[in-house]
Amino acid sequence: MSKAVVLLSGGLDSSTVLALAKAQGHDIVALTFDYGQRHDKEIDSARAVAEAMGATEHIVLSLPLGPLLDSSLTRAGAAVPEGRSKSDMSSGIPSTYVPSRNIIFLSVAASIAESIGAGSVFIAANAVDFSGYPDCTPEFLDAFQAMLRVGTKAGKEGRSIMVEAPVIGMTKAEIVREAVRLHVPLDLTWSCYKGGERACGRCDSCLLRLDGFRQAGVEDPLEYEVGR
């Protein structure tokens, strides 16, 4: 069975990507980063999802960059945008952007993949229903793939690690439907940028998730602070 490293945040998208990688027959090594984000809720969700979905191994890697990064996801007390429309989300790069996050995460994932003989790295980048992050685009992933071909031993030997982004072109509703089809434990996932007992229902991530569930005609099992 081929091995794959799956970047797992514990959210809807990455949990669905893990399920898709598993459905392709890969032996899953899930990789989660504790990078100094404002809460541990998503890490707890990633652990629960990895266990429930039978990942062969789950690595939680501490990378305490938070205090160094200019992002409202890492700076305590920084305002997280709320109540934005999809057009607002696509008009610029919000304060929740974490500088170079996917460059860092994919680099570490590729290093692990090359070391353990995994042929691919899966990432839940999405360029349809998203907050405009530049490291979630096909252009970025194509550039990173090209870098792996020339910058790794595996690439030089003609067996470059493949960067797989199976939900890159999906709407959130399509991702929800895939999650249901693949029996993703949606009640274990966490998408909110905040770490309360209940999801806030106001941040970009919550709003995109809620709209996706509505469009898919599926009940979101999470509880929210605001009405749906």
Structural features, described:
The chain has 228 residues and is α/β, with parallel strands linked by helices. It has one domain: 3-Layer(aba) Sandwich (Rossmann fold). The protein contains eight helices and five strands. It has helices at 12-23, 41-52, 86-89, 101-116, 138-151, 153-156, 172-181, 204-216; strands spanning 3-7, 27-34, 57-62, 120-122, 162-164. Strands 3-2-1-4-5 form a five-stranded parallel sheet, sandwiched between helices. α2 (41-52) links the parallel β2 and β3. α1 (12-23) packs across α7 (172-181). The longest helix has 16 residues, at 101-116. The radius of gyration is 17 Å and the shape is globular. The protein starts with a strand and ends in a 12-residue tail after the last helix. The mean pLDDT is 94.
